[in-house]
Write a structure and sequence with these properties.
Layout (H helix, E strand, L loop, with lengths): L5 E7 L8 E7 L6 E10 L2 H7 L16 E8 L11 E4 L11 H4 L10 H5 L10 E2 L5 E2 L11 E5 L3 E4 L5 H4 L5 H12 L7 E5 L3 H12 L4 E6 L5 H7 L3 E4 L7 H9 L5 E4 L4 H9 L7 E4 L14 H4 L3 E4 L7 H14 L8 E6 L4 H10 L4 E5 L1
The structure holds nicotinamide-adenine-dinucleotide, ligand AHE and zinc ion.
Length: 378
């Protein structure tokens, strides 16, 4: 297959709010600086559903969604030296070019390498073209530089984190987005210290990864908030010390949490994407020093607000993309910790399906409420 197009199955998002369509697509060979991979396992992230539902200002159709995957390199384009056929890689929607001229890659303050961000945001590869065509011969857009709801995909070399072959790709895929993001928000973006207090809003995979990361960082109080009480048992198992069903309260959740804690919480995390929850999370951060981190992705047109007094009185509002992890450097380390047994992730996989064609079932599972990650084995 090297150097030739591959015809394979993909789930194509033809339009907003429409079920994905199982189609035969043609995946072109990788060009210079690109890598073609076989997608072994793909997990569904809420962001895929958000874009499919038409809430993403960058959403383009038709496209192939998916950005949380474990893959094997099939072939590499000209000049690619960092991976070779047979290597196991995690596609990373936040790339890491590592160039001496990249002030973002050179800075320890950020992971936001902008090298291919502009083309990624308009659904094309860095040369401006696409590598997917439908059976009608028409182009299909890429998504987040990954497009893993397909049996094969083409990635920029700088988006490929090479990991140990010891970790099954069905688990490794989790490090492609949600789990890494939650852990990194705690460890990198906020630097949660031992004995601090934490509040987590939204107990999907991202929120539970925040709890797991906070427990590992030595947080002494971890308040878990959701509107679905079925989410609490896993939160407690991972280290939550208090649970709050915010749908049952007769007052704003921030008021309730301030009453629970006197002055608020050292670190709060929004893992819902709801701008009202983001406000609540900021407003229950501790007077004088509390930090609130936005992880959730808000729908197009939604904006955050609060009284500036909340910031004047010492709260900090920040956000994170991929938990601040420098992707190609850090994802292999997370994978190794999982192999070593110091970073268990099995509890995130609540549903598994066989074949890329089952991705709509995975979406149904995520909507069902009992799901953290649904993994499709392609
Ligand atoms: P998910 O849908 O599995 O989980 C969301 C949780 O929030 C659910 O348990 C839901 O019951 C809860 N929730 C909904 N409304 C709530 C409310 N008003 N108050 C409290 N809880 C509420 O989603 P996920 O995959 O865990 O992703 C969480 C968010 O993080 C999404 O917005 C996703 O797009 C975003 N995300 C961001 C990054 C990043 O890098 N910044 C990475 C991954 C995911
Ligand atoms: N495309 C949207 C924004 C979507 C967004 O914020 N994405 C997160 C990752 S979500 C992963 O599940 C992110 O890291 N963004 C940084 C980036 O460079 O995209 C919009 O508003 O246009
Ligand atoms: Zn994601």
């Amino acid at each position: 297959t090297v150097g030739k197009p591959i015809v394979c199955k993909a789930m194509v998002a033809r339009g907003p709010k429409q079920p994905l369509v199982l189609e035969n697509v043609t995946v072109d060979p990788p060009k210079a600086g690109e890598v073609r991979v076989k997608v072994i396992a793909n997990a569904l992230c809420h962001t895929d559903v958000y874009t499919l539902d038409g809430h993403d200002p960058e959403g383009l159709f038709p496209c192939i969604l998916g950005h949380e995957a474990g893959c094997v390199v099939e072939s590499v384009g000209e000049g690619v030296l960092s991976v070779k056929p047979g290597d196991h890689v995690i596609p990373c929607y936040t790339p890491q070019c590592c160039q001496p001229s990249c002030i973002f890659c050179q800075s320890p303050k950020t992971n936001l390498c902008p090298q291919i961000r502009a083309t990624q945001g308009i659904g094309v590869m860095p040369d401006g073209g696409v590598r997917f065509r439908g059976s009608d011969g028409k182009p299909i857009y890429h998504f987040m530089g990954c497009s893993t709801m397909c049996e094969y995909t083409v990635l920029a070399e700088i988006s490929c984190a090479k990991i140990s072959k010891e970790l099954p790709l069905e688990k490794a895929c989790l490090f492609g987005c949600g789990v890494s993001t939650g852990l990194g928000a705690v460890w990198n973006t906020c630097g949660v210290e031992p004995n601090s207090s934490v509040a987590v809003f939204g107990l999907g995979a991202v929120g539970l990864a925040v709890i797991q990361g906070a427990k590992m960082a030595g947080a002494s109080r971890i308040i878990a908030v959701d509107i679905n009480p079925d989410k609490f048992s896993k939160a407690v198992a991972l280290g939550a010390t208090d649970t709050v069903d915010s749908s049952e309260l007769d007052k704003p959740v921030q008021t309730h949490i301030i009453e629970m804690t006197k002055w608020g919480v050292d670190y709060t995390f929004d893992c819902t994407g709801n701008v009202n929850v983001m406000r609540a999370a900021l407003e229950c951060a501790h007077r004088g020093w509390g930090t609130s981190c936005v992880i959730g992705v808000a729908a197009s047109g939604h904006e955050i607000s609060t009284r500036p007094f909340q910031l004047v009185t010492g709260r900090t509002w920040k956000g994170t993309a991929f938990g601040g992890f420098k992707s190609r450097r850090d994802v292999p380390i997370l994978a190794q910790r999982c192999i070593d047994g110091t970073l268990p992730v099995d509890h995130f996989i609540t549903h598994t399906f066989d074949g890329v064609g089952c991705t709509n079932d995975a979406i149904d599972a995520l909507h069902g409420g009992g799901c953290l990650r649904a993994v499709c084995h392609h």
